[in-house]
Specification:
The structure holds two protein chains of two kinds. Chain A is an alpha+beta fold. Chain A contains seven helices and twelve strands. In chain A, a hairpin with an 8-residue loop joins strand 6 and strand 7. Chain B has 18 helices and two strands. The chains are: A alpha+beta, B mainly alpha.
Chain lengths: 334, 634
């Protein structure tokens, strides 16, 4: 005989509700990052994400309700042994086998179909090489080299070739696609696509050393027309120095910076640091560490280690007037 | 003097350790060793907890400069390393050490000296790893220590990663030895009549855990060992430029790393399967289901390691296979959950602190399981992996699935170990603080992870929408820590309150409650015989501390032999009388020799290497010397 005893409210019941409500908050709170889905490859995953969140919430609710009911029951009489055992088996079979199987099988199918639908190719290829702690970006067809910014046209699949020669990094721009690791000795491919023009932030997702936290990158999507203009501007060599001050700045650059940095159109062809041919058009310094303005740039050149300790950029001890000329020159590299 | 008193006095004389310092170093008593595991493990839990608080303090606000990048990387590396290697695994082994022999009704582990050896190695490897702080060269590449960052002197030039790689290999010896000991103990030393189908579920869980250890530990030995070769001898196992492969390390690491999750979770299931039935006042529902799913989890856990590596760019087909395996492990886990729900449904519930923690487990772990299904789905995993979503998921699984059961177990079994009851009110306070603190800390991490915050970052920029979540997490973290402190206070105060627990304070049904609290050195005066799963609830409950004339007591007349029964692996028929070793200094000596050996490898000192070699060989000879003359068993 099963009979309900006195219903005693125990706070434990509340626990499950707290969790449930929190899951709903999660669904409501999120409108950016992986929840945005601003391109085809991100959207497939996003649909799946919502399916998972809703199913997960339901499963948590069902389990929670069963748990609360179980805890609130106060059977007055002990059930007969065989009745109890039959009940045990049914409950375990229903909750432990049938419930998960019914949910998991369709999920598995959805998983495989979504995975199979992901694009593996694009019209345009961009090569991305990870360094401790920045991204080198190369457009092989146009001969453009830049850093920490990837410019792409909207509405087009772009194939990223991901390589590294130091340690493992991981490329992640949550609004456009999932992650793909950069692994020494391998060439991984990730296809990204943006529907609308905009700037999409991402950062290295695999721990890569001291400054892993400051290894961001931006994908900037242009309309196809704007993108063609960007390609034209950036395929061009660096501007020649305008005036005596900038010329002195270039000289300073050649003496102090050219060993590591390249500026196409000058003799500077160092390969250890980012290419600076169109440096002034970039948004940040130090892979997203600080915004690109004159004050930050001066600090960076004088002592990058105070901004980003552990980066390869050494302090450059030069007098204030020459630093001024150098900054003038760098700021002219649009 | 009664017969019973004479017997117990004689057993006391034969089994008691020497008092004071000699007894401290030469004891092979599984209970003393178990307590040492519990204390050492808990100490490491508190140390790693402080590290967690430092992490949360640093991340409370964007751009915080409380910790330098290097300090942060060291702290988060040692937090993970300590929690997994030095707290979770060993503390569960501690419960196993203390309670497996008691639950199966015998007087010690199968290999008491090996048991002492495992503990000393564990202690020394912990000291070894933390020695890195003394020389200021601390591991700093995460508890997973991916290559080539960790394997090349170019990227990690100091001794930090050598401490890590050698320390992990060193500790692996302890875990392996412990695993073998548990397996043999379980199969050969169960009380007469305790067939496999009557074995307590915690013992089943420890058995499954031990097999997981045996099959997975070689991978976590090999991975770091090759890393050390790359570092010390410039081999190229993980150096792509010279034909090696950094991914090899990830396969080795996760081939251990994923079963490791279950090495932790399976004993926790075992604990809950002892605790929940006691407070539902009925036997565990679906005993066979629970055992089958423990074993199933054990097998499936070896087929899911690649879901840590989906983003490395493996073929879709491989990803799909491992995804399916990852999903299938949900089923045995759900069986466990619903077996407990069925137990509670038809049980009569007594709300005591251990049950509260068990329900805390349920409320947290189920959500951790659900996010586990989510991360098994490959396209979702591409987004979630290496973000705070994973940090949330793994803490839901490991704190909900392991730490809450461990606290339940402390509140449940400490009265047996110490003989004193723990204050209920403090226990409840601690529980609610820990539960609320936990959700506050880790729930927002799901959101902030999907918003784009990667793991293992020492700071983050303002204006990305992550600030408020991180602040809440920090507040929650400190609330959780306060809750833990309240529990520590409750444990300590139980010694001052001195409320005697009695033999069986919870009216539980398994054999560990048949002994006195704390148990005598010899565990049971009369070795109990068993006819069902919950012997103490049966009408003919054994009373091993009040031996009757026809009980098996095994008190040797002349010699001071340590004796217990050996029984058959399946049906626990009595096979023979086992003569167990006496206390010995050799386990301590051997472990210390190994500490010297690993220090020699660390410092590349050939003199120390030679000394340690002689020391180790000498200890092994000494260990076996007394056993070279065979003794007649009687």
């Amino acid at each position: 005989v099963r009979r309900r005893g006195s219903v005693k409210r125990h706070p434990c019941g509340a626990l499950c509700w707290v969790g449930l409500v929190s899951l709903l908050v999660l669904s409501a709170a999120c409108t950016s990052g992986a929840f945005a889905g601003k391109g085809e490859s991100a959207r497939g995953g996003l649909m799946l994400t919502w399916v998972l969140i809703i199913l997960g919430t339901m499963v948590y609710a069902v389990t929670g309700i069963v748990a609360i009911a179980a805890l609130r029951r106060h059977p007055v009489h002990e059930e007969a042994l065989d009745t109890r055992e039959r009940f045990d088996h049914r409950m375990i079979l229903a909750g432990g086998i049938v419930l998960p199987a019914v949910i998991l099988l369709p999920l598995l199918v959805l998983n495989i179909t979504t995975l199979a639908a992901q694009a593996h190719n694009g019209r345009m290829t961009v090569q991305v090489e990870g360094f401790q702690y920045w991204w080198n970006v190369r457009y092989p067809q146009q001969g453009i080299v830049t850093a920490n910014e990837i410019h792409i046209p909207t509405g087009e699949r772009v194939r990223l070739e991901l390589v590294t020669h130091d340690v493992i990094h991981s490329f992640w721009v949550p609004e456009l696609a999932g992650k793909r690791d950069l692994i020494p000795g391998r060439r991984n491919v990730l296809v990204i696509e943006a529907d609308r023009p905009g700037t999409y932030r991402g950062q290295c997702a695999e721990f890569c050393g001291l400054q892993h936290a400051n290894m961001a990158m931006f994908v900037i999507a242009h309309t196809p027309g704007d993108f063609q203009r960007w390609l034209r501007d950036n395929a061009a060599p660096a501007r020649v120095p305008g005036g005596v001050g900038q010329q002195r700045g270039l000289d300073t650059f050649m003496q102090n910076c050219a060993g590591c940095h390249a500026v196409r159109g000058t003799g500077a062809d160092g390969q250890k640091g980012p290419d600076l041919t169109h440096f002034a058009s970039r948004r940040t310094i130090g892979a997203g560490t600080v915004p690109n303005n004159r004050g930050r740039l001066g600090g960076w050149v004088a002592n990058a280690q105070s901004t980003k300790p552990g980066s390869l950029m050494p302090p450059i001890p030069i007098p204030a007037d020459r630093l001024n000329d150098l900054l003038d020159y760098l700021e002219s590299l649009r | 003097m009664s017969v019973a008193t004479r017997i117990t006095e004689r057993l006391e004389h034969v089994w008691a350790d020497a008092p004071g310092v000699p007894g401290f170093f030469n004891t092979v008593d599984h209970k003393r060793i178990g307590v040492r595991y519990l204390i050492t493990g808990f100490a490491f839990f508190l140390i790693a907890g402080v590290q967690a608080l430092l992490i949360r303090a640093q991340l409370a606000t964007p751009g915080n400069t409380l910790l330098s990048p290097e300090a942060y990387n060291r702290v988060f590396t040692m937090h993970g390393t300590t929690m997994i290697f030095l707290f979770n695994t060993p503390i569960l082994a501690g419960f196993g050490n203390y309670f497996v022999p008691l639950m199966i009704g015998t007087r010690d582990m199968a290999f008491p000296k090996l048991n002492a050896l495992s503990y000393w190695i564990y202690l020394f490897s912990g000291i070894f790893l933390y020695g890195s702080f003394l020389v200021g060269q601390v591991p700093n590449t995460g508890w997973f220590a991916y290559t080539p960052l960790s394997s090349s002197q170019m990227y990690t030039p100091n001794l930090g990663l050598d401490f890590w790689a050698l320390g992990v290999v060193f500790l692996g010896l302890s875990t392996t030895v412990g695993g073998i000991n548990f397996i043999v103990t379980t199969f050969k030393m169960r009380a007469p009549g305790m067939t496999l189908s009557r074995m307590p579920l915690f013992v089943w869980a420890i058995l499954v855990m031990s097999f997981l250890i045996l099959f997975s530990l070689p991978a976590i030995t090999l991975g770091p060992l090759l890393m050390e070769f790359d570092r010390a001898f410039s081999t190229a196992f993980y150096d792509a430029a010279r034909g090696g492969d950094p991914l090899l390390y990830q396969h080795l690491f996760w081939f251990w790393g994923h079963p490791e999750v279950y090495i932790l979770f399976v004993p926790a299931i075992g604990m809950l399967a002892m605790i929940i039935p006691t407070f539902a006042q009925r036997p565990q529902a679906g005993y066979t289901w629970v055992v089958a799913s423990l074993v199933a989890i054990g097998f499936i856990s070896f087929g899911v390691w690649v879901h840590h590596m989906f983003a490395t760019g493996l073929p879709d087909l491989a990803d799909s296979f491992f995804s399916a395996a990852g999903l299938s492990i949900t089923i045995p886990s759900a069986v466990e959950i619903f077996a407990w729900l069925a137990t509670l449904w038809t049980g009569r519930i007594r709300w005591k602190v251990p049950l509260l923690y068990a329900m805390g487990f349920l409320s947290i772990f189920v959500l951790g399981g659900i996010t586990g299904v989510m991360v098994s789905i490959v396209p979702f995993n591409f987004q979630a992996t290496d973000t705070y979503f994973i940090v949330a998921h793994l803490h839901y699984v490991l704190i909900g699935g392991v730490v809450f059961p461990i606290f339940a177990a402390f509140y449940y079994w400490l009265p047996k170990i110490t003989g004193y009851l723990i204050d209920e009110r403090l226990g409840r306070t601690s529980f609610w603080m820990m539960l609320i603190g936990f959700h506050l800390t880790f729930f927002p991490m799901h959101i902030v992870g999907l918003l784009g915050m990667p793991r293992r970052v020492y700071t983050f920029s303002p204006g990305l929408g992550w600030d408020i979540y991180n602040l809440i997490e920090t507040i929650g973290g400190y609330a959780f820590a306060l809750g833990v402190l309240v529990s520590v206070a409750a444990f300590v105060m139980s010694f001052m309150r001195k409320v005697p627990a009695g033999d069986n304070p919870w009216n539980a049904g398994t054999l560990e409650w048949a002994t006195s609290s704390p148990p005598a050195e010899y565990n049971f005066a009369a070795l109990p015989a068993v006819t069902n799963r919950y012997p103490l609830l049966a009408p003919d409950a054994p009373e091993p501390m009040r031996p009757r004339p026809d009980d098996v007591v095994l008190v040797p007349a002349g010699e001071d032999e340590h004796e217990t029964l050996e029984t058959a692996g399946l049906d626990a028929r009595v096979e023979s009388i086992l003569v167990m070793p006496h206390p010995s200094y050799w386990p301590f000596c051997l472990a210390f020799g190994l500490l010297l050996a690993f220090t020699a490898m660390l410092t590349r000192s050939s003199v120390l290497g030679l000394v340690s070699l002689l020391w180790v060989v000498g200890s092994m000879l000494g260990w076996h010397w007394g056993e070279l003359t065979p003794k007649e068993a009687h």
